[in-house]
Here is the input.
Amino acid sequence: MSRPRLIKEASAPLQLDKELLLRIHDLMVKTRALEERLIQMYKQGHGYFWIGGPGEEAFNVPLGMLMKKGQGPEYDYLHAHYRQSGTLMALGEEPIGALRQMKNTATDPYSGGRNFAGHFSLKKYNVAPVSSPIEVQYAVAPGTAMMQKRVGGDGITIVTGGDAGTAEGDFASCLVWSSRPANPLPILIIVTNNKWGISTSGEGQHGETRISDRAKAFNIPAKTINGNDPVEAYQEIQAAMEYVRKERKPYFIEALVSRLYGHSSASGANFVGDEVDCLKQFEARLEQEGFMTRQQMDDLRNKYTEELAAAARQVRDEPQPEPDSIWKHIYAEDK
Amino acid sequence: MANMAQAIRMALHYAEENLGVTDIFGEDVGMPLGGVFTCTQGLKTTWNSPLDERGIIGAAMGIAMGGGRPVAEIQFCDYVYNTIDLLKLAGNTCWSTNGDWNLPMVVRTPVGSGIRGSIYHSHSFDATMTHIPGWKVVMPSTPLDAYGLLISACKDQNPVMFLEPKALLRVKGEERIPGEPDDDKVLSKMIDAPLGELRTNWKPQWPELEAYAVPFGKGKKVREGSQVTVVSYGRTLPLCAKAAATLADEGISAEVIDLRSLWPYDWELIKESVQKTGRVLYVNEDTEVTNFGEHLVRRTVEELFYSLLAPPRLLAGKFLPGIGLADSLEMASVPQQGDITHAIRSLAGEQP
Here is the structure.
């Protein structure tokens, strides 16, 4: 079992190209600014509910960057949960879409004003609709992986969820269906472990030493990584994806992450000071390595904060869905 | 004539060959068994799943998302209850994504009483399923309708729940499936897997089947009548038809409608009939409280009140936690021939 490395121990130089590091940083800042704007919108009454993943950027951004983006089984499928704006930003989504979903406008690109914040859905990039009941995505994901295995190529299925949700049977379903000896599936199974389920600590709920140990019982190679380190996350996700793409077999990652603003607006959405802030730590390293100055980082943060404030003002004036639109899309029409 | 299990098998074969069905799967659906009711014997895309109903429904959703066209089976509808939130999710995926995603998937499951299945193999699922928007829900009462409805299901862009009345799976039809050979024994030799070791290397010989689709939302008038309308589906439908035939000798003229599709359903057919007869009896075997027939009664009262000569009635299963194994218990729990005959007679005799 790999021991999670704490970032302060990593005295070695950053092991990725500078250009890539700056791109990761840019997306992390953009994602953080987006989430903070969403929280602000919620607190100002411009949305009914907030849930998101500030604190998970160091893991979610590299995941989105490494995905093979496109539509159909030749490309990667993402069965995400609702803390993955970083992954969506890395896929190239503009943050205003998430703002529109928060404000439930007719222009909301993910649900047309029908679903919660963070509930992304993008058929054009194989992003399966995010569901509010946690972990159901683990039961669905083997299906796309089955199609990918049959179609051939190197497209894989990625499924993510939280540590608390691993108590659900669908998590076990995923391990069973992905690892049947007669038909192992090309699926990257991910659990982001922030050690909490709403207000319930993981310590009171599950007894395994590492959640990744559960995968080992199914002969699925598994690793626990420090999801707060974008370099480690990038390298580990890349290696895992290479394995799954080539071997057409499952791989399991448990990523230890932070929950910087609690569970959701249900728990107040206030900053939690004693969690590791992956962005802050990464910025310290970038500065230490001389890749960016504090001023440059502040400027970048300000730029995104201002852009998102402007986007929020724009979204505020956009129309709500027409009441009659409730009757649209109950069924898909024959094409 | 083919029985319903054979008709389902032939429809699935047709759908594999012509409609792009990629996966027919569930517990024991593949060989050697080919389904506990033999509905999936000899098909080329069948496979056995883990014993995991949530996994089955989830996989069907994923296969549909991944560009496949799955037909999943839940061995008995009694076991589909632990997948309710996945069924809800499948039903709302198109709506919640504002039309971005749709799930072309079929779930088949045997329903109802009739095999002395005791508490866990006798449930009905029509009330529960018609409560989940976004699905189409069908339930045939004849082999030909089973064939035609399943072909429509395999063409649809949306999730379809195909409810199989298990009491009727072995009943031969009165109409031939288009392409079915004239001799039943010949058909059986062609498509029924042999027992035991012989099955290992067995391959079916499929007849040259023809496209025959029963459109969703279209009921069927199985008997003309003028005094009472009887609306049913599944196991109780042939009982209603038989009751109507018996009562004709007493001078009672009952019109019998086979609803076939529960959602969408053929309200126009019901409406036209009730406006003619002024009396309506809805018959099914699901438990009577919050029954799909109650919805039909409500709509009848709201829309057809001034056409009615008597209150609309519902004859359904008793509101019990289960169906007991003893013959007497099962018979007492869900509508039987005598109950239906009595209910029609009683309604026909009711005067305003």
Notes: Chain B touches chain A through 38 residues (CB under 8 Å). The mean pLDDT of chain B is 97. Chain B has eleven helices and twelve strands. The two ends of chain B are 45 Å apart (CA to CA).
